[in-house]
Amino acid sequence: MRVIARGPHNEQEGVTMTTLGSEMPQREPKRFDGAELARSVIAGPLLDQIQHEMKITDDVLIKYPWILHNHNAAVFLNSEFPGGPGAALDAVRKMLPDADREASAPTPSSVDEPYAQNGAQVALALLGSAVIRELLGSNARKGSPIAYIWPTLFDLIIDINLNFTPPETTTGDLDDPNPIASRPAPPSGDDFPEFKHPDPRRAAKARIKKYIEKAIQSFNVTDPNVGVFKYKTELSSQYVFARLEGRMVIKLVEIDRQEAQVMARATKASQRETAKQASGSVGEVSQGVLDAIVDPDTLQFRTIHHIWPDFEVASCIVQSIRTVKAD
User: Which residue pairs, CB below 8 angstroms and at least 24 apart, start in 116-120?
Assistant: First the structure.
């Protein structure tokens, strides 16, 4: 994971001993950089893998846009497989019927001959995500003819922002063009609309799940094996578990940022309206009072704190002379 340190000496560039006595120059506000935002939210090694895959994929699609017509995946054949890439391709094709059956694939999967433009080790394919998992699961037993398959499906742990502040002035409808609305009195018991739940973690989880749906829909993906792991997510109060392609992870972070900005603007507008209404009994509110209402910090409306790769937990028991410790 990359760590970028910033100190007081590198905030300003071009400052020398001769300028210490002069007025410090005004800093120009930096333009929003989506890459910097993604790096702060997505775990470094995970983001590096996503960006590497996206860059190569985008470069190929710019040169050969037609490959998307009948393909949705690329199988990278193991060049060290006995007999070379050709033998590896034959082995993969023999694995397809079993993978289709185990995954209950609605239509037969296919892996084409490698195109000369892409090299002898890259075979374009039409594979569902469940079929891909079956192929990778049986890969080692078949001599590892597959090096890897793109797009990679990442199993993720999405850490909820525990400082998330549900806006009191939003309807909770992410598609509402006018999100300003007063919140009705909450119902009794646990029958709360999730977006308006008094527990900020529940409200944040509901929004994250909606954001994930929007991220998937933006790429016209209808694979039922992509999305939120509902059972695991319901068992946790702090995490959302999901399986997404790399491009969807990047889109998810962007949606979270955009929605946080919408909520911040809505909150400021509501505060101004409240100030106007409160002034009814004491006279007209001054413009200075309205101008004093600053933009809320969008960080409090961000639902995602961090995104990590999910992983299997393995037991580690260490026995010493007096104690047995379990990690």
Answer: 117/63, 117/64, 118/60, 118/64, 118/74, 120/77, 120/84, 120/85, 120/86
